[in-house]
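Q: Give me the 3D complex with zinc ion.
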Amino acid sequence: MIRISNNGLSYYKFAENDFEGTIHGFFTRCGGVSPEPWNSLNLATTVGDSRENVIENRKRIFESIARPEKSLFDVWQIHSTNVLCTDVSRNFAEPHQKADAIFTDRPQITLLMRFADCVPIILYDESRHVIGIVHAGWQGTVKNIVRQAVTEIERRYRVNPADLVAGIGPSIGPDHYAVGENVFLAAEEAFGKERESFFQHANGSLFFNLWQANGYLLEKSGVTKIHYSNICTACNLTEWYSHRAENGKTGRFGAVIALKE
Ligand SMILES: [Zn+2]
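A: Here is the predicted complex, encoded as structure tokens.
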């Protein structure tokens, strides 16, 4: 990953030429106006921070990537497998639609999702000019939202999965993600006999590797070009929000992607 600093904000992007037709970034929590425990570039109004702070933080992000704020399309993320393809930016006068994967083929739209441990997966098809972001926590992972997303863009945009490039962004790493037996049980349907390879027993706990699990599901959906950020949110709280490491008292950072015009 490359770290970019701009206007007091910092974000990471994939270095690979594969994402060349996009503007994308995973914004660190630095450079915003929100006080503790949301310090400081928090993008969620659902975690106790003020609406004014969130709006100012959002404005700073759009300025740093030189995109108009009215290009924004975002959703209410609910750990579902709902996939939304949009031709228009969000109408700020209406409530958010509920979804956990968003796509567009329009260069006038900027997609944004919010994270604090869940896995952001950006997808890009250069030939079809399609971009997207998937939100996969443990629930989205075991429900296989990745497959749902790929299936939907095959249908909607005639994307060939072999043309897709995927980037797995900053999220909780296997070193920090202890889960309950319920997660292991819920993973059976998505992973079958491969399930064991994504869970590891250590120090009396069970650790789930969300990065490799989603990489596997992407491969099963026909995606072969997969890049891993290997950045663990819980390992570096000065740059990332971590719901787990901060006991739920934290903010949400932004993952954004847009097509270059
Ligand atoms: Zn970690």
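A quick observation: Residues 77 and 166 are 20 Å apart (CA to CA).
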